[in-house]
Write a structure and sequence with these properties.
This protein is α/β, with parallel strands linked by helices. The chain has two domains: 83 residues, no CATH class; 134 residues, Rossmann fold (3-Layer(aba) Sandwich). It is built from ten helices and eleven strands. The strands form three sheets. It has a five-stranded parallel beta sheet. Strands 3-4-6-5 form a four-stranded mixed beta sheet, with helices on both faces. Helix 4 crosses helix 5 and helix 6 packs parallel to helix 10. The relative contact order is 0.11.
Length: 258
Amino acid sequence: MDRTRLHELLRGVASGDVAVAAAEAALAVAPAEELGGFATIDHHRALRDGLPEVVLAMGKTPRQVAAITAEVYARAGRVLVTRVDAAAAAALREGVPGITVDGETRLAWIEAEPRPGTGHVAVVTAGTSDIPVAEEAARTAELAGARVSRHFDVGVAGLHRLTPHLADFRAANALVVVAGMEGALPSVVAGLVANPVIAVPTSVGYGASFGGLAALLGMLNSCASGVAVVNIDNGFGAGVMAAAINRLAVAAGRGGAA
């Protein structure tokens, strides 16, 4: 159950097209459901924040990943799985027919009825090596209802590469800027736009980058205003935040450029 389905259901009851008993049956699913003794699925997550419960494959057995994913998809009609390894991918392909698995980004997803995105979220990377984390953010935002534009490999090592993208950056309701190494790109972008910038440090870098810690600290110490920072390699968290900002902007009548 998400807001769109709930609104359609309530409008149907109000117009007389949906019987009260049918609406009662649709709402009878418990907000949380225990599954197999290893998970408790939150079926009302999409109703609260626009995105069904996302499955983190890391640390779960392949059987658990497939079972949780299948149950979320059965109830919500869409599901996203993050940090998918080869064993989990095989279990998902068997347990959730039709699911898309992307080995590069370690994502898997399926949506029964894809919906056009609204508003505008721009996802930007400093380098090609940052794309897997950026795609995690982009796919998350798309499944949460946002229209997403992608701008990859435009980092500060060749600053002139940003110029052709500035109009799109400025038209977005929110930007996700992904960078490793010293993590300078979010500060540069935030200095050129008035939109909220969500900075994502990645673990891309050499020894003194300390697995992304240098980029994280650089972003936290940004001198540009309007920068918020998520954890290292947390594309999912950035995508959720960007989609939430975008959803509020759309509701306020700022739809973003088409």
